[in-house]
Design a protein that fits this description.
2 copies of one chain form a homodimer.
Chain A: H1 19-37, H2 43-52, H3 61-68, H4 77-89, E1 93-96, E2 101-104, E3 115-119, E4 125-128, H5 131-144, E5 147-158, H6 160-165
Parallel strand pairs in A: 3-5
Antiparallel strand pairs in A: 1-2, 3-4
Helix pairs in contact in A: 2-4, 3-4
Chain A binds a DNA duplex through α4.
Chain lengths: ~170, ~170
DNA sequence: AATCAAATGTTATATTATAACATCCGCTAG
DNA sequence: CTAGCGGATGTTATAATATAACATTTGATT
């Protein structure tokens, strides 16, 4: 049983996985995809992506703005929103609609639209391909005659790690 | 083949179903549920619900504010947001997270969380219970050990009626 | 009549996002 | 080489969405 004090306040489950690996994989993939696609992962865009990957939590645009200012003194809302637009177009991040926030995408390049499990305790977002769910959705669209452009499948609750750490599962 | 001119601009598919019946059913159900639950469907709340049910489109909070002002001269943002909070708590409306907008719930009282199909052409929102999807989701949560509090399953695209009306399906 | 809770009124402000136009910078057609 | 073009960024302003905090009203209960 892990105690609350053992876990960092900002990154509650950080000790439980090699986060540097998450970051380097995400950045490597992003750099590679941008080269292949002939689009520019400029310094600003790269920095925003890195800031987003600081954790597995969904991050607000204005929080990113605050955090990028030491690096980009001239940064304004448009600076961040343009970078976010680019990163979303390239499938490198998810917009979490129900939080107005953004989180790194672990599966850039393959299937981008995934089930997002959003923990209310630690605020981390877990992506799951959820292939059975996606298949059931496809059948539903066919039945409804609906032509899909984009999906947002977001679920809020308590993740397995927090459920183990806390008894109170509001 | 229906032409564009035949359809109302605001309610493109209104001729295709008895919308008065949608509204009266929704309001009757709401009134009944509130009595049963011992909560107050006050005039403001009732008016907001009626305004939302004016169509099957998702409506913005400030649009509701504009539309309620003739009836409630003193209406301010809080007036609307409080009514919306109440209606959501009672499961009488859905918040469409990906639009920051609101739409009436046809199945208040039974299962509230549903698949929402959101048409980019007519802006109408179709609710579907999508039981296979929900079952697949439940299995996914079990596998992930995730304790669900709420779900938002929102899909954007072109509805079957608009697909029939328009060739250009952006 | 006193009091309490729920709803609403009211003012102010926080948060999220975009519009519009200016500038910079690397590339390439002439 | 240089004029011009497109993409990225800088800059200012403002739009759109949402909440906080405190005052007042109202109807039910004691």
């Amino acid at each position: 049983m892990t105690t609350l004090a053992e876990a960092s306040l900002n990154h509650p489950h950080s000790s439980e996985h090699d986060h540097k690996k998450c970051v380097s994989e995400a950045l490597d993939t992003a750099e590679h995809l941008c080269v292949v696609r002939g689009v520019q992962l400029t310094p600003i865009r790269h920095q925003v992506l890195e800031l987003i990957w600081d954790s597995h939590k969904a991050v607000k645009a204005y929080e990113l703005l605050d955090r990028i200012k030491p690096l980009q003194n001239a940064a304004k809302p448009a600076t961040i929103y343009r970078a976010l637009d680019f990163l979303m177009e390239q499938g490198l991040i998810h917009r979490v609609e129900s939080l107005n926030a953004f989180v790194g995408c672990s599966s850039s390049g393959h299937q981008h639209e995934q089930l997002l499990l959003i923990c209310k305790h630690c605020n981390e977002v877990e992506e799951r391909p959820a292939t059975e769910v996606m298949q059931a959705l496809s059948q539903e669209f066919d039945q409804a005659g609906f032509i899909v452009h984009s999906k947002a499948i977001e679920v809020h609750g308590i993740c397995i790690k927090c459920a183990a750490l806390y008894d109170d599962q509001d």
